[in-house]
Write a sequence for this structure.
């Protein structure tokens, strides 16, 4: 029904929907609801129909019925599919609104919805009562509704959502129905809309107060802002096209013209020095960087051909208009044809641009595609902040309609005012003596901070990104260092660095965007100031660990600690209590607006009590004083607004400042009193355990009385409410901590449902990049799935997923149900990756990739478990390892890099450099890890002709990783240099290795190698550099097996050492002779991956599908399909996979799916139309077969060769194209 609003607002589209349960009373009451009367569109499901097949509508409303309604001799509308649709013309374009009622036991309405969506090709809203339950939208507590049958019925709806790129507008866990019998709240109703429309979504929520009688459904209200917006033209420097050599030349010249580097003593001098440096940077940017101009009409798919089409169409349009009175003039037809050609050319250009982008995805651009999957839906324009509701100081409601008022309302929400100062008569507390101040900042600290930054991250108000400082740190460091030292020494802070720019972004999934709490701030700070912040943060983090300023169980923002550490500790604490027949209670503190509410004065007090050096306390107060920011939203930037409280979010110092701020809160529990506190930045959890819940509650009240707070409880058994002062806290059955749902029995069922919903979402997202006839390659799609999707839905699986174990004669135990349901996600993703038909067996899909991402998790493992084992114990038993077997990695194992992460040269350049090297000593290293064992070797060549060789067998196969062996080779090379220095003055040294990963580990740019081995290698290199009065040593990459003599000699030597060759002890470093490697985590992971692959292949060989496959294609493994098809286009790879599996649109397979009446070939009628019949026997295609296949040899008439030989693929596709079959896959 289309409504005429009682109080219309032309800028908003308001849609109300409700299932009135065929009740006249419900429909009348709903139609006269004072809020519903203001709707633009009302969508009714199961409406009331009288004996004349008519419904009821108030005056002024225009009813819209299904197409067959009220036709003569037609049955009642309920005998037909309950789908109605209408188009609403808006300033943003037409919007198709589909109102759907889907029966409980079938999906009869959904095919017609899919047809409507394919025909529209524009913005759509699909809403109604779908009668489907799924973890994507239902609450986790309704897990009993997620049966296999229910999930199967929901799958076609999910396919429509994913296939048409629709987003769910109604937030998850919002119930829309209350059961009449059980009174349970469920979610059969839903709202889906095109992704671009979500940018205009103001609110989507239920209206329980407007629920009429005689129906158990709640009205759902969707409001869109349809007022048009215009994106302004933006001009800014395009730093990705900067001429860096010119930039450095201009910058160096400008810096030389600056005044001398005198000592800075006051605020005026530091402001002047910062201003001079920034002006030189601006000058260099202007001279070396072109402008990037963006406007609302910029389209990547536009081409000169489209411009020519447009020009001709405009000319013909003018001529046709001038001849409008002459209807027989041929110009009208000419214009019509050109207009259609122009329209089709636009469609073709957009489609071709998107398809070309997907087909050409490479190592770099594939992550751009991953960003499209991960980012919030957008239409490419700027999001708008609608009118905001707020409360005035006199408690009267008001609406902020202009940008100035909106910025004030948002500012009050983002940055609350500071608390009142302490009373003047408060005695000054005694503080401990501060720890000794570290040495002043050095240039290496500045370089470490600069090289750890992301080069093209959004800059602050000055518009200079980090790439500018990365490219010129060697020129700027002598000018920046005095500023940084003076700022810390005198407690002064540059005025320009107090300014920031705050971007206003909407929080995803909020039901109402007309309130300020639905938005979050993103602070952009000047990058030059963040260099100093990073230097100070590194020092404070190091001092905090060294002097124990932070509690042991404060996990957030600290090196070597992750969210799963906190989750494991909580789960283990609870299960340990249960194992001793005690009960545990958890108190979850929700710190609202943590960073903006942090008081700098209280932070300074905490820092003094911990003994933080005074220089950093005073500097922190100076930094956080006098700050201003500009709010940026829509096309508006507010004036500078003061910030009186809080810590800057996005600042490198924000985490360590907040950890010091709330450290006293984490120290409240007394460990000896069965109390524990677990914290991850602002997520704080108190845990107590005792003989009863009443005892636990007394302990929690005692802790809360020390520090007060908010409460969420999660317990094993029913327990009485907890009362803290005047607040009564009701226990809940589950609570989300750090993204994981803890339930009162720790069986993790609710979180498993959440993970399943995430997995289904990400598997569906792959359809955007991998369609049947176009898209990215199967290899790229699989890599995106494993690197983006799998980590998202398997987050913290080591906590909530119990490995599946089986005992002879007993049922499987562990997360059996989740593992089974996980296979549904795996098969959906595999079909999208490979372009397979839905009828393709899951076992065939799983056999193609080398391993199932979680195959080991669904296989059996021998275990015997005691009562209430913690998650880590299950994992260690499952993996068959002991923690003591692993190498100990210290928390500070990965220092910040001190050399720029320059890319390695290409293969040819590296070879030429190795051939042309004239260093005094050239040392080549190599390693091997094969069936003979793990060995490393080094060969030293001196310019005078001297040669030294050494090598060592490090262990059996699998004892060390190849990376460890390569680093051991570099250690041997350094030892040879030290040996040569004993009787020779060495001028310079070049050490060559064919492992880029080993060089990255030595330069602290990556990790994964044995820590002790890496430390010994770095010590040996430093010692060699000190020899001969100082010897320059360069570690370079040389491609392996490329004909470089030194590398070939080292490779031969490594093989000889692995076979048993032993060198004299003086040529072997003492460390390596005594090195007994413990289990390296990287080596263990590699072994487990190999085990996963073995299990997957065994599972495939035991299946019936393998027997059929091996009969048709002997000696062929399906796991090689991805490598075999990596050079093919998406459509051709899809065709090849379908021909290989036999699940393709040929009559025998279509007959099996009951889509045709006979499996016989429609051309010859002699036999069933199978793949082999179509390719090799059908007489209809005899001419094409001879031309493309038979004329090339008899091998081309064998399936195993034609479908699996690289040289046969092109003739195969030519044959298929010439037959005229599968045109969409061979275009």
């Amino acid at each position: 029904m289309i409504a005429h609003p009682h109080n219309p607002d032309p800028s908003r589209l308001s849609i109300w929907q409700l299932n009135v349960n065929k009740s006249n009373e419900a429909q009348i009451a709903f139609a006269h609801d004072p809020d519903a009367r203001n709707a633009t569109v009302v969508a009714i499901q199961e409406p009331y129909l009288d004996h004349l097949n008519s419904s009821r509508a108030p005056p002024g409303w225009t009813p819209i019925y299904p197409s067959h309604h009220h036709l003569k001799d037609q049955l009642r509308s309920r005998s037909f599919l309950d789908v109605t649709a209408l188009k609403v013309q808006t300033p943003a374009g037409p919007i198709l609104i589909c109102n759907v009622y889907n029966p409980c036991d079938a999906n009869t309405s959904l095919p017609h919805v899919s047809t409507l969506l394919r025909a529209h090709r524009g913005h759509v809203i699909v809403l109604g009562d779908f009668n489907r339950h799924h973890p994507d939208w239902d609450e986790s507590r309704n897990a009993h509704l997620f049966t296999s049958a229910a999930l199967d019925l929901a799958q076609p709806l999910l396919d429509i959502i994913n296939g048409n790129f629709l987003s769910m507008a109604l937030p998850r866990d919002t119930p829309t129905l209350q059961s009449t019998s059980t009174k349970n709240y469920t979610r059969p109703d839903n709202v889906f809309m095109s992704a671009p429309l979500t940018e205009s979504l103001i609110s989507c929520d239920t209206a329980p107060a407007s629920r009429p009688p005689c129906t158990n459904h709640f009205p759902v209200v969707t409001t869109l802002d349809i007022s048009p917006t215009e994106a302004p033209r933006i001009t800014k420097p395009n730093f990705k096209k900067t001429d860096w050599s010119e930039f450095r030349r201009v910058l160096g010249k400008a810096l030389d013209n600056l005044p001398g580097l005198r000592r800075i003593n006051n605020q005026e001098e530091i402001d002047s020095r910062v201003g001079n440096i920034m002006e030189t940077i601006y000058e260099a940017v202007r001279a070396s960087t072109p402008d990037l101009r963006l406007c609302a009409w910029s389209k990547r798919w536009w081409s000169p051909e489209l411009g020519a089409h447009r020009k001709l169409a405009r000319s013909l349009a003018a001529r046709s208009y001038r001849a409008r009175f002459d209807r027989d003039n041929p110009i009208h037809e000419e214009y019509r044809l050109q207009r259609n050609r122009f329209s089709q050319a636009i469609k073709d250009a957009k489609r071709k641009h998107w398809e070309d982008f997907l087909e050409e995805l490479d190592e770099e651009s594939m992550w751009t595609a991953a960003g499209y999957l991960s980012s919030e839906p957008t239409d490419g324009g700027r999001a708008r902040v609608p009118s905001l509701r707020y409360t005035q100081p006199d408690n009267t409601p008001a609406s902020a309609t202009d940008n100035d008022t909106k910025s004030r309302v948002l500012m009050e929400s983002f940055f609350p005012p500071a608390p009142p100062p302490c009373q003047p008569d408060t005695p000054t507390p005694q503080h401990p003596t501060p720890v000794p101040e570290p040495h002043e900042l050095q240039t290496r600290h500045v370089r470490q901070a600069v090289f750890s930054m992301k080069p093209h991250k959004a800059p602050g108000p000055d518009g200079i990104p980090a790439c500018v400082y990365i490219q010129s740190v060697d020129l700027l460091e002598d000018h920046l260092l005095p500023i940084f030292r003076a700022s810390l020494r005198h407690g002064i802070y540059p005025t320009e660095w107090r300014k920031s720019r705050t971007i206003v972004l909407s929080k995803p999934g909020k039901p109402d965007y007309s309130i300020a709490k639905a938005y979050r701030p993103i602070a952009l700070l000047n990058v030059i100031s963040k260099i100093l912040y990073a230097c100070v943060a590194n020092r404070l983090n190091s001092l905090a660990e060294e002097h124990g300023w932070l509690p042991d169980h404060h996990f957030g923002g600290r090196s070597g600690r992750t969210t799963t550490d906190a989750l494991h500790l909580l789960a283990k604490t609870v299960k340990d209590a249960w194992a001793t027949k005690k009960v545990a209670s958890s108190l979850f503190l929700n710190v609202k607006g943590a960073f903006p509410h942090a008081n700098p004065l209280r932070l300074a007090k905490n820092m003094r009590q911990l003994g933080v050096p005074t220089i950093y306390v005073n500097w922190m107060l100076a930094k956080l004083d006098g700050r201003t920011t500009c709010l940026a939203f829509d096309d508006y930037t507010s004036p500078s607004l003061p910030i009186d409280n809080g810590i800057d979010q996005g600042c490198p110092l924000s985490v360590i400042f907040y950890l010091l701020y709330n450290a006293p809160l984490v120290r409240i529990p007394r460990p000896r009193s069965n109390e524990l506190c677990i914290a991850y930045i602002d997520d704080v959890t108190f845990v107590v355990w005792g003989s009863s819940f009443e005892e636990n509650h007394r302990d929690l009240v005692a802790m809360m009385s020390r520090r007060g707070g908010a409460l969420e409880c999660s317990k094993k058994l029913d327990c009485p409410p907890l009362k803290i002062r005047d607040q009564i806290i009701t226990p809940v059955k589950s609570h989300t901590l750090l993204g994981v749902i803890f339930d009162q029995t720790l069986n993790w069922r609710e979180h498993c449902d959440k993970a399943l919903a995430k997995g289904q979402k990400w598997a569906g997202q792959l359809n955007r990049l991998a369609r049947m006839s176009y898209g990215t390659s199967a290899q790229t799609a699989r890599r995106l799935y494993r690197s983006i999707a799998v980590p998202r839905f398997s987050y913290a699986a080591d906590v909530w997923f119990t490995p599946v174990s089986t005992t002879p004669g007993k049922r499987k135990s562990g997360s059996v149900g989740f593992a089974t349901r996980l296979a549904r996600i795996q098969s959906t993703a595999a079909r999208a990756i490979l372009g397979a038909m839905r009828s393709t067996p899951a076992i065939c899909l799983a056999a193609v990739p080398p391993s199932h991402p979680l195959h080991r998790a669904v296989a059996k493992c021998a275990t015997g478990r005691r009562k209430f084992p913690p998650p880590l114990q299950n994992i260690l038993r499952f993996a068959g390892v002991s923690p003591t077997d692993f190498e100990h990695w210290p928390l500070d194992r990965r220092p910040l890099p001190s050399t720029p992460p320059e890319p390695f040269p290409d293969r040819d350049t590296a070879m030429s450099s190795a051939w042309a090297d004239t260093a005094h000593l050239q040392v080549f290293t190599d390693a091997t890890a094969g069936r003979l064992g793990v060995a490393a070797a080094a060969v030293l060549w001196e310019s005078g002709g001297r040669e030294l060789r050494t090598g060592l067998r490090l262990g059996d196969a699998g004892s060390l990783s190849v990376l460890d062996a390569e680093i051991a080779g570099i250690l041997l090379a350094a030892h040879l240099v030290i040996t040569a220095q004993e009787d020779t003055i060495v001028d310079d040294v070049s050490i060559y290795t064919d492992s880029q990963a080993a060089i990255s580990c030595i330069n602290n740019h990556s990790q994964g190698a044995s820590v002790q081995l890496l430390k010994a290698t770095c010590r040996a290199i430093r010692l060699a550099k000190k020899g001969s009065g100082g010897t320059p040593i360069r570690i370079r990459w040389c491609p392996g097996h490329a004909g470089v003599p030194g590398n070939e000699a080292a490779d031969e030597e490594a093989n000889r050492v692995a076979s048993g060759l032993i060198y004299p002890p003086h040529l072997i470093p003492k460390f390596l002779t005594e090195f007994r490697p413990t289990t390296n985590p990287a080596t263990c992971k590699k072994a487990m991956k190999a085990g996963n692959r073995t299990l997957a292949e065994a599972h495939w060989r035991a299946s019936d599908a393998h027997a059929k496959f091996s009969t048709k294609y002997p000696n062929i493994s399906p796991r090689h399909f991805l490598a075999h098809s990596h050079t093919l286009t998406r459509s051709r790879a899809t065709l090849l996979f379908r021909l290989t599996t036999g699940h393709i649109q040929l009559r025998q397979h279509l007959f099996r799916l009951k889509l045709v009446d006979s499996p016989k070939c429609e051309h010859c009628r002699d036999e069933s139309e199978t793949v082999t019949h179509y390719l090799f026997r059908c007489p209809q295609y005899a001419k094409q077969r001879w031309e493309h296949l038979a004329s090339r040899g008899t091998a081309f008439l064998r399936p195993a060769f034609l479908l699996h030989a690289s040289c046969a693929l092109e003739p195969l596709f030519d044959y298929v194209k010439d037959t005229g079959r599968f045109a969409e896959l061979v275009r």
